[in-house]
User: Which sequence fits this backbone?
C-alpha cells in the first residue's frame, strides 16, 4: 500500500468511529428542543469540561497556533494567555448565568438578551451578528479540515471532496443527536488530540534536535528575536498583546460557549469546570514546540498553516500521520457541529419565531432549527470553498465582534440601570468601530486591538444612552439572585 | 486573588517577554506562561474553596 492509502484509511477509520459515537449518543432519548440544544441541562463536570474543551480546542489551536508561531513568532503566545484568563471570568459569571438559564429556560445568547431587556430587536440583532460570526468561524474549521485531509493523503484527495464529505457527516449527527452527540464525539477527539500533542510536541523536537532545549537553542541562534514580541511582525507589540488578551478573554460571549454553560447539571459544575479548564492550555504549549520545530525543519513555506503537518509528514511513518490527521479531522468536526447547532437554534428561536411566527410551539422551533442546520451548513461550505480576502477580514472581525456582546451580558447581570436601547446602540458602535478598522486594514490601530477600541466606545455609548433613555426594565426580577456574583 | 494571574500573564508582559534566563531549556517567556497556566487553576481552586465557605 502506498503511504497515502495507509494514512487515509487510518483517518477514515477514526472519523467513522467518531461519527458512529455521534449517531448512537442520543439513542433512547426523546429529542425535544431542550435536549437537542442544551442536553436537558444534565451534564456533569467531566462532560461539560470535555464539551467546552471541544469548543476551545479547534483546528485553529492545532494548525493556527503552529502556523502563527511559524510565520509570526512570539505574539502567538497571546492564545495561551487569553484561554487561561477567560476562565477566571467564567468562574465569576458562569454560576449566575446558569442559574438564570434554569429559572427562565434560556437556551441561547439571544434568549438572554430577550429576557433581560425585553427587547426583541436587540435579541434578534445579537442573534444575527452571532450567526454571522459563527458561520465565518465554521468556514475556518472546514478549511482546516480540507488542509488536514489533503496533506495526510499526500494530496491524493482534494480539499473540496474532503470538505463536502465531512461536512455532510457533521450535519447528520447534529440533526440526529444534538449537543449530546457532539459531547461524546469530543471524548474520543480529546483523548486522541492530547496523545497527538504529546507525540508531536515532544517527538518532533526530539527526533530532529535531540530534545526541546536543544531545539530552542538552535532556533534562538538562527532567529534571535523571533520568539519575543513583535517577533516576525512589525506591529504586534506589547500594547497589542495586552489589548488583544483582554478582548479575547471575553470568550464566554461566543454564542456556542454561552449555550454550553446551560448544559451543566448545576451552577457549581460550571464553576468547578472553570477551575480545571486552564489545564487544557498545557497541550497547546506542546503545539507551540512543534510549530517552532517546523520553523527549523521545513522553512520557507508560504502558508504557515501547512507547516505543522508538513513537518509531521517528513518525520513520522504514514500510519501515524493518519492518526494525527484523524484527530485533526475530528478537531474540526466537533467545533463545527456545535457551531452549526448554536447558529441554527439562534436563527429559529431568536429571529424566526419572534418576527415571522409568534405562535410557534417548541416543536415548531425545533423543526425550523433543523431546516436552519441545512441552510447554515451549505452557506459555510460555500464560503469555505470560495475563500476571499473579505472573509479573512470578517474572521478577524468575528473575534473582536463577539466581545461587543459582553457589556450587555455583564452589565445586564449586575446593574439595573442598563437599558435595551443603550445596549443596542453600544453594540452597533462597537461593531462599527471594529469593522471599520479591520476592513480598512488599520488593525492594530495605534498599537491597540481594533476590538478593544470598539469595546471601549461600546461601553461609553451604552452608558450614555442608558442614562438618557428612561424606563428601566429588568426581566430578571432579582438579577443576582441566590448565586452571589463576586467573591 | 483573581487579579494575580491577570497581572502576571497580561499586564506585565514587557517584563517577562525575553529569552533569558533559559529555564529547563525553554526561553523565559514560554516558561513563564507555562508556569502561570499551571498555577492559575491552583489559585482558582483556592478561590473556589473560599467562595464555598461563605
Assistant:
Amino acid at each position: 500500500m502506498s503511504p497515502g492509502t495507509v494514512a487515509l484509511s487510518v483517518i477514515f477509520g477514526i472519523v467513522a468511529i467518531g461519527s458512529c459515537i455521534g449517531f448512537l449518543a442520543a439513542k433512547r432519548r426523546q429529542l425535544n428542543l431542550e435536549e437537542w440544544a442544551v442536553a436537558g441541562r444534565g451534564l456533569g463536570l467531566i462532560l461539560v469540561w470535555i464539551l467546552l474543551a471541544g469548543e476551545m480546542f479547534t483546528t485553529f489551536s492545532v494548525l493556527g497556533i503552529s502556523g502563527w508561531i511559524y510565520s509570526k513568532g512570539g505574539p502567538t503566545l497571546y492564545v495561551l494567555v487569553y484561554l487561561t484568563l477567560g476562565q477566571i471570568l467564567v468562574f465569576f459569571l458562569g454560576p449566575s448565568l446558569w442559574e438564570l438559564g434554569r429559572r427562565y429556560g434560556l437556551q441561547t445568547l439571544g434568549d438572554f438578551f430577550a429576557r433581560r431587556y425585553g427587547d426583541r430587536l436587540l435579541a434578534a440583532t445579537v442573534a444575527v451578528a452571532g450567526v454571522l460570526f459563527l458561520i465565518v468561524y465554521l468556514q475556518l474549521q472546514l478549511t482546516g479540515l480540507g488542509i488536514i485531509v489533503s496533506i495526510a493523503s499526500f494530496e491524493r484527495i482534494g480539499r473540496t471532496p474532503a470538505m463536502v464529505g465531512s461536512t455532510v457527516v457533521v450535519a447528520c449527527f447534529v440533526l440526529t443527536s444534538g449537543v449530546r452527540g457532539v459531547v461524546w464525539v469530543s471524548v474520543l477527539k480529546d483523548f486522541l488530540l492530547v496523545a497527538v500533542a504529546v507525540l508531536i510536541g515532544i517527538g518532533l523536537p526530539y527526533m530532529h534536535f535531540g530534545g526541546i532545549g536543544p531545539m530552542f537553542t538552535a532556533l534562538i541562534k538562527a532567529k534571535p528575536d523571533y520568539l519575543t514580541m513583535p517577533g516576525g511582525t512589525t506591529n504586534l507589540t506589547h500594547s497589542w498583546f495586552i489589548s488583544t488578551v483582554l478582548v479575547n478573554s471575553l470568550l464566554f460571549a461566543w454564542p456556542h460557549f454561552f449555550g454550553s454553560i446551560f448544559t451543566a447539571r448545576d451552577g457549581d459544575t460550571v464553576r468547578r469546570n472553570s477551575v480545571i479548564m486552564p489545564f487544557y492550555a498545557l497541550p497547546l504549549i506542546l503545539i507551540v514546540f512543534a510549530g517552532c520545530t517546523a520553523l527549523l525543519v521545513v522553512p520557507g513555506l508560504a502558508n504557515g498553516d501547512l507547516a505543522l503537518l508538513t513537518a509531521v509528514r517528513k518525520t513520522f511513518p504514514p500510519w501515524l500521520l493518519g492518526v494525527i490527521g484523524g484527530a485533526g479531522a475530528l478537531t474540526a468536526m466537533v467545533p463545527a457541529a456545535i457551531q452549526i447547532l448554536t447558529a441554527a437554534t439562534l436563527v429559529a428561536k431568536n429571529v424566526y419565531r419572534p418576527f415571522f411566527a409568534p405562535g410557534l410551539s417548541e416543536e415548531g422551533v425545533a423543526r425550523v432549527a433543523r431546516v436552519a442546520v441545512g441552510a447554515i451548513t451549505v452557506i459555510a461550505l460555500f464560503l469555505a470553498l470560495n475563500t476571499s480576502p473579505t472573509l479573512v477580514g470578517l474572521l478577524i472581525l468575528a473575534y473582536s465582534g463577539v466581545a461587543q456582546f459582553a457589556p450587555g451580558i455583564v452589565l445586564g447581570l449586575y446593574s439595573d440601570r442598563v437599558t435595551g436601547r443603550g445596549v443596542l446602540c453600544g453594540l452597533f458602535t462597537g461593531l462599527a468601530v471594529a469593522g471599520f478598522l479591520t476592513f480598512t486594514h488599520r488593525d492594530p490601530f495605534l498599537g491597540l486591538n481594533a476590538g478593544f477600541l470598539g469595546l471601549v466606545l461600546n461601553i461609553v455609548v451604552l452608558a450614555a444612552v442608558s442614562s438618557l433613555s428612561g424606563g428601566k426594565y429588568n426581566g430578571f426580577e432579582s438579577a443576582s439572585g441566590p448565586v452571589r456574583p463576586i467573591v | 486573588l483573581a487579579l494575580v494571574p491577570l497581572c502576571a500573564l497580561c499586564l506585565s508582559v514587557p517584563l517577562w517577554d525575553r529569552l533569558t534566563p533559559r529555564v529547563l531549556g525553554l526561553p523565559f517567556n514560554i516558561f513563564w506562561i507555562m508556569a502561570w497556566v499551571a498555577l492559575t487553576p491552583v489559585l482558582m481552586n483556592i478561590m473556589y474553596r473560599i467562595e464555598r465557605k461563605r
